[in-house]
Amino acid sequence: MATPLALFKGHVQTRPQLVPRLNPRKVSIVAQSRGLRMESDNAGPVVLITGCSHGGIGHALAREFAENGCRVVATSRSRSKMADLEQDPRMFVHELDVRSEQSVNNVMSNVMDKFGQVDVLVNNAGIQCVGPIAEIPISAMQNTFDTNVFGTVRMTQAVVPHMVSKKKGKIVNVGSISVMAPSPWAGVYTATKAAIHALTDSLRLELDPFGIDVIDVVPGGIKSNLANSAVDVFKKMPELKLYKAYEEGMIERLFFFQRRKPTPAETFAKDIVAVVLKKNPPAWFSSGRYSTFMAIMYHMPIWFKDSLQRKALMKKG
């Protein structure tokens, strides 16, 4: 992950030239083996976005990419949560569960049949997981990692062979500013986002020889329904034993940014789309409320950060 100090430099870290580009002809057989047919770009770029449920970042990104002349493939686990997007002729709406390899392959097959290409992949699908690490069911942790981390990997592995065959493409991974200052009750979610940032840094180096840009997007406090969904999951978990008195602080952690004038998802989407559609996009970009504050927190002494976290989130009900 890029250094947090980049937040003070216009929230952008430019992408360095790494090694000479490789001839994709030597690796195009990989794409052919997966049945990915190639077509010339005769319209706007095709952008495949995961996690496009109404009220979230992905939904706003889908609309903004479409406004910028892109052909958008909007996906979500629940098609009904994208009903308004389905009415937009610029959208190709598809149900997708990033936890399922079969679902991922099905979407890729249908997208290639319709458009013959994927120019931009936005790995945005993600879920929250709140609670004390000592008591969160392992199954809930696994589901969070399977969605946030392995879902990103599945989508990436599905689209890379095609991008390699074209010697171009962009992969956008959506992380979180929370990794700058991990807090109690959000350890599992923050761990998944830390993994995303690390994977993105490695992927950027690995795909550079093939002309594929990999962009690490770090949202600050953005208005979304993510916390509301997480509350529903939290309430279905087994009753806490060791931390029952701290449940109020756990709920507060979920809504910490949402209750403090978060950046509208539409504003965030405009910032991100403008960056992604650049000819030479940056390797790392952050936008949203509290981005700078969290970067400052990253550099604070541990005792100071712990003190703030205890006061804000370790309250007993």
Automatic annotation (TrEMBL):
Pfam family name, one: adh_short
GO molecular function annotation: oxidoreductase activity
Cellular component GO terms, alphabetical: chloroplast
Location in or out of the cell: Plastid, Chloroplast
Keywords: Chloroplast, Oxidoreductase, Plastid
UniProt cross-references to PROSITE patterns, sorted A to Z: ADH_SHORT
InterPro entries, alphabetized: NAD(P)-bd_dom_sf, Sc_DH/Rdtase_CS, SDR_fam
Transmembrane segment boundaries: none
Main location: plastid
Family recorded in the similarity comment: Belongs to the short-chain dehydrogenases/reductases (SDR) family.
Family annotation (PANTHER family): 3-OXOACYL-[ACYL-CARRIER-PROTEIN] REDUCTASE, NADPH-DEPENDENT 1-ACYLDIHYDROXYACETONE PHOSPHATE REDUCTASE
Protein's name according to its UniProt entry: (rape) hypothetical protein
